[in-house]
Amino acid sequence: MRGLHTPVSELRKSVFVEVARIAYESENVKDDLEALPYKISPDETPKFGDNIYQERAISAERARLAMGLSLRPANKPVHITNGLDQSTVDEVYYEAPLMQVIPSACASCEDNVYEVSNLCRNCLSHNCVEVCPVGAVTMVDGHSQIDKEKCIKCGKCKASCPYDAIGKRVRPCALSCGIKAIESDELGRAKINQNKCLSCGMCMVNCPFGAIADKSQFYQMIRAMKSGTKVIAEIAPAYIGQFGPEATKDKIYAALKALGFYEVYEVALGADIGCISEARDYVENVIHGDKPFALTSCCPSWAMLAKLFFPEVKDQISLELTPMVATARSIKQKEPDAKVVFIGPCASKKLEAMRKTVRSDVDFVITFEELDAIFTARGIDPATIESKGSLHDATGAGRGYAVAGGVMDAIKKCMEEYYPNEELKCEHYEGLADCRTALLLAKNGKKNGVLIEGMACPGGCVAGAGTLIDVNKAKKEIEKMVQASTKPVPPLELKDIELD
Q: Taking CA atoms, which of 77, 78, 92, 448 is between 20 and 30 Å from 252?
């Protein structure tokens, strides 16, 4: 849960911090990586569970994922560092699968199971018994009892209980997945169907055992910086507030420069390019053209949802560059020899960076959570660092992309400014389940003439899997930043910028 410090978030950060320290300081990476589980759990008293050996095994797998490596097979001995030499060069990109279940960490939670709690009062009416269509509920020793073999999971017993004594147990990771990509393996552990998974990371965020994790790339980024490579950061607008209320725009800029980034840009610059271009596209191709409706493209999981599950509508996805790619290309026009790292709230941006058409633009993708660990590893506090420079690359419209509905609002502002005689019909959807419904309606002709914004994470980018603070608090920070922006909308000439 974002904004709440838990043993899961502590373990994740501990591994990230140690991997970052290895990247910066180690003279013997293999030995230090093999020792990492023992550094996190140094004695025989477990810190993150009941079994020290299981705890170290989980830390070892987390370390591999943090290095961009896949999990080790369970049926043969493999060193933590196996494959390290091939993954430590900065030309290596993320390889599928991005989201992975750590088997030793999974608690094999029961899914879709009804059971009676101690709130049962042995009431006289026995509604639960009477309402069950298959006779799965009986009274045993003055207490309602459900036969799981007979139960058809209709939920009528739960709905009928006046004391709310019947609960439904669900697997948190499966409940959070809007496309039902969470299944079970032969041992009852969670398993991700990689043919369905869109890498939004909501399963990772909602697993209370921290059994789901994604691959990272910050080790390779740090090594590139240490080698003398010019590395430029582009940071998504959702950064504001993520590192504390005192970490202002100018301090974030100073902290990133202190890490060694050659320069820092706002990704909202690319959003400015995108919203003015999408406003033009809507006017020319939906209102006055033969395009039935328009779909935004900035959320990779939303775009992949359309392409994989609704191929009939994929041609309606905007062809404009996403803010991440547009900003990266504008940077590389100025600095063609530099490496560009996208820093943001989103796990699925790692998925976007895997595309062959994007690899030459974005070299690394890291999340705010990973950046926070890097700051810790280097002893940098964005809240207290001396201000040096600032981020002034974007307008309020582009910065508003960070919240659900923000893309739609940005395009609306551009329409009002530059196409005042045209009417914008727009809707936004958040969460993959609602996004799927929207695409189904669009496919069936129910959304003609509409610009549809889709965000995989409920709340938008500020609710991404790589964020650090409460979603509502993050939304308020974005609202304040948008209102404080000196320019509300991007200039019209951005629609003609050449980034191909």
A: 92
pLDDT tens digits for range 390-446: 777 688 999 999 999 999 999 999 999 999 999 999 999 999 999 999 999 999 999
pTM, whole model, 2 decimals?
0.93
Sheet holding 231-235, edge to edge: 263-266, 231-235, 339-344, 364-367
Res 90 pLDDT > 60 = no
Superfamily of domain 229-496: Fe-only Hydrogenase (Larger Subunit); Chain L, domain 3 (3.40.950.10)
For every residue of 259-309, DSSP letters joined together read HT-SEEEETHHHHHHHHHHHHHHIIIIIISSS---EE--S-HHHHHHHHHH
Look-up of token digits 């992949």 = 304
Domain range list for the chain: 7-99+177-219, 113-169, 229-496
Ramachandran quadrant class, 141 (left: phi over 0; alpha: psi -120 to 50; beta: rest): left
Cβ 492 vs Cβ 403: under 8 Å: no
Dump pLDDT digits (tens) for 15-51. 999 999 999 999 999 999 999 999 999 999 998 888 9
Q: Is the peptide bond before 292 cis (omega within 30 degrees of 0)?
A: no
Token code pair at residue 485: 């922006």
